[in-house]
Design a protein that fits this description.
Blueprint: H1 3-21, E1 26-31, H2 35-48, E2 56-59, H3 65-73, E3 78-84, E4 86-87, E5 90-91, H4 93-102, E6 106-112, H5 117-126, E7 130-133, H6 138-149, H7 154-167, H8 171-184, H9 189-201, H10 205-217, H11 223-236, H12 239-252, H13 257-270, H14 273-306, H15 311-325, H16 334-346, H17 350-363, H18 368-380, H19 384-397, H20 406-418, H21 422-435, H22 440-450
Parallel strand pairs: 1-2, 1-3, 3-6, 6-7
Antiparallel strand pairs: 4-5
Helix pairs in contact: 1-6, 7-8, 7-9, 8-9, 9-10, 9-11, 10-11, 11-12, 12-13, 13-14, 14-15, 15-16, 16-17, 16-18, 17-18, 18-19, 19-20, 20-21, 21-22
Length: about 450
């Protein structure tokens, strides 16, 4: 795409957002404790797009999100809700489901950093309209919003219009609209999906099934046709066919606990008690894992309250956070191990801190922050040879580690000097002074090396 085409596209996206917030009476609600993202969004609307008035409501407490949406819905026709996937340590999946079930005029954009694909698939299935991975540029942000508000091409607009006809119960006209979609784009899964809805509305279930199957055939990763087919076979009482489509859905989105229960119920009806028991057990395990993750997140939040005030209590809650995860510990828990280690070191329990760092290093063996904290724990225990060998390994794996942080450079320099590695210590002290020429401790340490 040429630079001119890109600029024209951006102008089209900008106009979509401007019209939505102006003539269409739309409004944005952002549920986030990430003030950097909130600031970028506000700047985009007020400065880049020159939106007048107050187009944005910010919410930092997840307990108030539904109330803010309800109150804003009384004044605004349409809403886009930006919501963090994790907010104040709590998974927001249930909130997303509640929003979609309660408010017909809400579009939902999930804000996320790195997260597992299966979790995003589940969020999409229960109602998320789009996703934003942070950090994000202003131009990409505008594009994401525009596509969430409405399709940005002729075909998408035809699909939206056909869906609206189905929602109004105007099934004959919706059929004509679906055929028009298929003329513009033969084998359009969305076109066949609308056609299936229209046939089902007219009571022609065989034709509806054919249309949904066509939709699924032309988009085998598209979950909506499979969900329609499962529901259709529920209406006709064909348990085996319903089960077949539920199983396909489960392969695409395995974290949906309710679907596993539905599948188990069918197996009970079919007399497959052993398979039903397996599914029910899996559902309970997944629900338990989700619940324990939440307990862990709450425990970590409490630990953070105590981290600088009462390291003993911080230790207790960091341990609870890790214990809650049980055998499901992964790279996302490394920060908790680091914080637990710091809480232990503040109590003088440097040996216990090392034990925790070693557990974490089994998960991420080459994490330089973990190794640095472990070296500091050894230094606090006056085990300078061990501390020194760890710092040497850090510098082999990640040579740039600490190069832009005067305190890290100084601390590693102290470890080298106590570990009888003066040449390496000098390099680190000099780097600390390069970053801050007034750093007196580094200057004194360097002088001591040379004396």
């Amino acid at each position: 795409m040429s630079q001119l085409d890109m600029k024209m596209k951006l102008k089209q996206y900008e106009q979509t957002v401007i019209e939505y917030l102006g003539a269409q009476g739309g409004h944005f609600i952002v549920a986030s404790d990430d003030q950097t993202f909130v600031g970028i969004l506000r700047t985009t609307l007020l400065k880049q797009l020159a939106i007048s008035g107050d187009p944005l409501t910010s919410v930092t407490d997840p307990d108030y999100i539904l109330k803010v949406i309800r109150d804003t819905s009384l004044r605004r026709k349409h809403l886009v809700v930006f919501i963090e996937r994790m907010m104040q340590g709590k998974d927001t999946s249930m909130l997303v489901r509640q929003m979609k079930n309660t408010f017909a005029n809400v579009k939902i954009i999930i804000l996320t950093g790195e997260t597992e694909r299966q979790r995003l698939v589940l969020l999409h299935e229960i109602g998320a309209d789009n996703f934003i991975s942070k950090p994000i540029s202003i131009n990409t942000l505008i594009e994401k919003i525009a596509f969430t508000i409405k399709p940005q091409g002729k075909l998408g607009q035809l699909i939206d219009a056909a869906k609206a006809l189905v929602a109004q119960g105007n099934f004959e006209t919706a059929l004509k609209a679906a055929r028009k979609i298929l003329e513009v784009k033969p084998n359009s899964a969305a076109g066949y999906l609308v056609m299936g809805d229209a046939w089902q509305g007219l009571g022609k279930l065989d034709k509806a099934r054919e249309s949904f199957e066509q939709a699924s055939e032309h988009a085998n990763l598209y979950m909506e046709p499979l969900k329609k087919l499962a529901e259709l076979h529920k209406l006709t009482g064909d348990m085996n066919e319903r089960l077949r489509y539920l199983e396909r859905l489960d392969q695409l989105s395995p974290l949906n606990v309710e679907r596993k229960v539905d599948m188990g119920e069918i197996h009970v009806e079919l007399g497959n008690e052993e398979r039903a028991e397996e599914l029910f057990e899996t559902a309970v395990q997944q629900a338990t894992k989700d619940a324990l993750n939440y307990i862990g997140e709450i425990s970590e939040k409490i630990a953070a309250v105590y981290s600088s005030r009462d390291p003993h209590k911080a230790e207790k809650y960091y341990r609870q956070a890790l214990d809650a995860k049980g055998s499901h510990l992964d790279h996302t828990d490394i920060a908790t191990f680091n914080r637990l280690g710091i809480a232990l070191r503040r109590q003088g329990k440097w040996q216990q801190a090392i034990e925790e760092y070693e557990k974490a290093l089994h998960i991420t063996p080459d994490d330089p922050n973990l190794m640095y904290n472990m070296s500091m724990a050894y230094a606090e225990g006056r085990q300078f040879d061990k501390a020194c060998s760890i710092v040497m390994r850090i510098r082999q794996i990640t040579p740039s580690f600490g190069s832009m942080d005067k305190t890290l450079s100084y601390n590693m320099g102290i470890i080298f000097s106590r570990g009888r590695q003066p040449a390496d210590a000098r390099v680190l002290f000099e780097n600390a002074l390069r970053l801050d020429p007034s750093f007196e401790k580094a200057q004194k340490a360097l002088e001591n090396l040379e004396s």
